[in-house]
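ok so for the tutorial part 2 we go from a plain amino acid sequence to predicted structure tokens. step 1 is just haveing the sequence, like this:
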Amino acid sequence: MNEAILEDDFFKNMNTKDEYNTDNQQMESFWSVLKNQLTTETVQRFGIEKVLNALEGTGGLSDYKDGGNVSTIHNAKNGVFVDSEHERRFNAAYDRKNYEGRGDRKLSAQRKKMFTENEEIYDAYTHKKLNKDGRTHIDHITSAKEIHEMDAARLYMTDDERNDMATADSNMAAIDGRMNQSKGEKSMEEWLKKEKDGQTNAERYDVDEAEAMRLRRRSQLGIKGKVVLAAGREVSMASFSSGVAQAKKQVIGLLMHYGTSIFLEEVQSYAANWKNYSRIAERLDALKAMGGRIKDRLIEKVKDIKNIIKEVFASAKEGFISGIVGTIVTTLINMVATTVKSVGKILQDSVTTLIGAFKMWTKNPNNLDKATLAKETIKMISLGASASVGIIAEEGIKTTLASTALAPVADPIGIVGGILVTGVSSAVLIYVMDNFGKIIKKFKDAWNDMMYGLQRTKREILETYNKALAAVDETYRGILSDIKDYYDKMDNLALLAHDMNLSGEEQVSASIAYARASGVDDSELFHNVDEAKKFFLG
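step 2 — the prediction. this is what the tokens look like for a chain of 538 residues:
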């Protein structure tokens, strides 16, 4: 018998398994990340965000408003204010009575005091001696109307602060009454240059222009300084308030993280073992045991009070700093463009994320190599951006549904939509970061293929096509040849299996080879003549 035919490994190569597809492995990783992100976001949105929104001043979305929490001239001119008091002041009409002093700073009281304390009084602009009577007035060097028309002064300073600023010593000057009436609400420059009958006011009243302008500059410097201080005070107070809110948010988030991380770990373990429980009673017992473990782990965590306090303090400090920086960044943006409240929160959260990323990069707590550290830092920033995108999506969904029949359920639908957007975008970002090199290679290959087509003539492309077609034809000819060989071998084995001229032993061996080639399982075969005899003869 021809042993070569029976031992030929041709048939062994007919059914082969594909090698493990690394792309499938990567997609499994993607779905795993997506599931974890969705779980985390669900806990965040229905957990910490709800708590923060319920507790005023803890960094929830309800603590933000359009235009941020610091007034800017740009926002005020567009009708956006931090509160009604700022709006009232900014839009108030001019009334000279509001700038004539208060208490012992009233103009009448100042003039009386000046008459009492000085034996002689001289005109501040002309240096001429003045009488101690009604002909001597006290002038606002920078007029009351000029002060009122300063947008920043009305926005950042209270009525009393502007009144006190208008009647401060640096803005008061004893002058002749006729000159004061002539000057009125005009600026110093405007009044000095104004002409009548071919003569300027400076010439008519014999004004020392250099001295008058010196007093004007001193007045302006004092006024601008007070306005800047008022604006700085508002930014400082708002920054401090935001810093405290962010510190509270960080602490609340940390405390909730302690509980939710333990809870999620136990729930995942319970879900993983679900199939091992055959009865409802077993599942209930396992659920009860899980609750006990959660309780015990929380108690153990609380016992570690020293480290908890340390972490809480670190989180509060980081949150406070991010709150201050976030407020400053938001204010700077609102000087040129008005932000909506969701953008304000996004900016604040982005600053918090950047500070966290900077802290990771500089301290490297896990001693990562530079490449891995850079990847993890960028990943942290990217996840912060994903959360921002989710918030925008959530607000958009809520706003869209608010005017439809789905208005009663707009909030939960918006939250779920935001969770999905954040979770998916986060998972995509993580997947891209982890497989960046492979993705770039695919883009590069696709680009090279495209450029190859653009850089070749029609003739070259046709030649390449014909070569490829010829290669396909050759491949198919090989396949057809393999198929012919296959059936030739099968036919050969079939003839051997039924060749009555062969001995019984050879015929059985040929039958076994034929059955194996046909795909019959080895457990269903006779392996030798003895097994066949035993089966048929018993």
